[in-house]
Each structure stands twice: as structure tokens, then as C-alpha cells.
From TrEMBL:
Top-rank taxon: Bacteria
Family named by the database record: Belongs to the ABC-3 integral membrane protein family.
Any one GO CC term of the record: ATP-binding cassette (ABC) transporter complex
Name used for this protein in its record: ABC-3 protein
Compartment(s) where it occurs, according to its Swiss-Prot or TrEMBL record: Cell membrane; Membrane
GO biological process: response to zinc ion; transmembrane transport
Organism: candidate division CPR1 bacterium GW2011_GWC1_49_13
InterPro entries: ABC_BtuC-like, ABC_TroCD
Cross-referenced SUPFAM superfamilies: ABC transporter involved in vitamin B12 uptake, BtuC (SSF81345)
Length: 259
């Protein structure tokens, strides 16, 4: 019989994973997969600063991610340099700094996550925040896609691409902050990107793509949490390996049906 604590952690993982997968679907369409992966690394120095100031490390991570989101948004709007190049320069540097300044006892948990350390209050907050993030993402989804298809068309419909892009990045900031406790700063990008990539292998419409992205996010988080509890392994690698399993399965399925 599954313990009550494990059921609760599975529930939290389902909501966070679903929100991450859904947001990741837009990131893949916007061709920001590498940006999304490196973006999560910025949380590490924020965590470290939170620990040094004796405040909640998640607040430090969130503050660092918000600053990074604003930086990405500003550079995308004002710079001609490709976002991937900017991310490669700035965000990998942030990861290096974070590793150097994070206290060693907390470093492993920060990098790879530790779902067992989540309290009941934190879990409930994560569930509520995941629902809110998913709802807001759904409400702006058409505007995001219009911007991907044609920025000129979006502007002709009086849609502010700048405002939509900024709001989207802030939503990603929120879901990354929630997911850090599950998979850590080093692997959180995979929970956002891989379920969406798996969904793209088998989706035949935009609606099914959104749905499968969220479902694979849910399944990856739930299976990873369960395997983590069952085999006493870090939750981060377990969740990521589960998501990679879904990607591999959908890739083979796509190849089989094409053949």
C-alpha cells in the first residue's frame, strides 16, 4: 500500500510536472529549448545567496530567475545577438558562480533536487501556483502562437508581443522555481523541454500537442517521484530519465508508423 506521504508527493509532482510540460510546449515552438535549459541554472546562485542571508533559498532562486527573465526579455528586444549565444555566455557563468558559492552540504540537493524535503505547506503552495501558472499560460496561448507565426500579424491584431513574451518568461520563472525541489537546478530544464519534445513526436494538431506535453510532464514527474521513493535515489535524475523514456518511446512510435 502506498504511504500517505508518497501520495501527497505524487500529487505535487503531477501538478508541477503538468505545468512544466505545458509551458515547455511553447518554448519548443519558440525554438528556445537551449535558452530554457540554461535559464534554470541561474537559480543556483540565487539559492546560495538565500542560504548566506538566512532566508528561504526558494525566494533567492525566484529573485535570480526573475532578474534573468527580465534580462532575456530585454536582450531579445534590443540585441541582434542570437539568444542562444547570450545564454551560453551569461547563464553558464551563473551556474559556475553558483557551484562555487553554494555551501557544500546543500549543493547536491540544489543541483539534483530532494523531493523528500518538501513540507506540506510548500506542497500545497506548489499545487496552487501550478494551477495558476497553467491557467494564465492557457489564457495567453493564442497570443504566444500568433507571435511565433508572425509578429506582424500579432501587431495588426493589437497584440503586444513584448508584453506577452515578458509574461510568458515570468510564468517559466514561476514553474522553474517550483520544480527546483523536484529535479534541481541542473536538470530542471529537462522537465520543461523533454515532455514537449516527446509530445511533438506524436501530435497531429496544436491541441493534441498541448495535451500530450502536459500529460508527459505529469507522467514523468509521477513516475520519477515513485522511482525515487522506491529505490531511494535522487528525485531529479529519476524524473529526467522517466521523461527521456517517454521521448524515446514516442520517437520509436513515430518511426514505426512512418515506416
Amino acid at each position: 500500500m502506498i504511504e500517505t506521504n508518497l501520495l501527497f508527493l505524487l500529487l505535487v509532482g503531477i501538478f508541477v510536472g503538468g505545468a512544466a510540460g505545458f509551458l515547455g510546449s511553447f518554448m519548443v515552438l519558440k525554438r528556445m529549448a537551449l535558452v530554457g535549459d540554461a535559464f534554470t541554472h541561474v537559480a543556483l546562485p540565487g539559492l546560495a545567496i538565500g542560504l548566506m542571508l538566512n532566508i528561504d533559498p526558494m525566494l533567492g532562486a525566484f529573485a535570480a530567475l526573475v532578474l534573468a527573465a527580465l534580462g532575456i526579455w530585454y536582450l531579445e528586444e534590443t540585441s541582434r545577438i542570437y539568444p542562444e549565444a547570450l545564454v551560453g555566455i551569461f547563464f553558464t557563468g551563473a551556474l559556475a558562480v553558483g557551484i562555487l558559492i553554494t555551501p557544500e552540504p546543500e549543493l547536491l540537493e540544489a543541483l539534483f533536487g530532494d523531493i523528500q524535503s518538501i513540507t506540506a505547506v510548500e506542497g500545497l503552495v506548489a499545487i496552487a501556483a501550478s494551477i495558476l501558472i497553467t491557467l494564465v499560460a492557457y489564457l495567453i496561448s493564442r497570443k504566444v502562437i500568433l507571435g511565433v507565426i508572425s509578429e506582424e500579424l500579432a501587431r495588426s491584431l493589437k497584440i503586444s508581443n513584448k508584453a506577452v513574451n515578458l509574461l510568458y518568461l515570468l510564468l517559466v520563472t514561476g514553474v522553474v522555481t517550483l520544480g527546483i525541489r523536484f529535479v534541481g537546478t541542473l536538470l530542471m530544464g529537462a522537465l520543461v523541454i523533454v515532455p514537449a519534445a516527446a509530445a511533438r513526436n506524436i501530435s497531429r494538431s496544436l491541441v493534441s500537442y498541448y495535451l500530450f506535453s502536459a500529460l508527459f510532464g505529469v507522467a514523468s514527474a509521477a513516475l520519477g517521484v515513485y522511482l525515487s521513493s522506491l529505490y531511494a535515489i535522487p528525485s531529479g535524475p529519476a524524473v529526467v530519465l522517466a521523461s527521456l523514456g517517454f521521448f524515446g518511446g514516442t520517437f520509436l512510435l513515430k518511426k514505426t508508423f512512418k515506416a
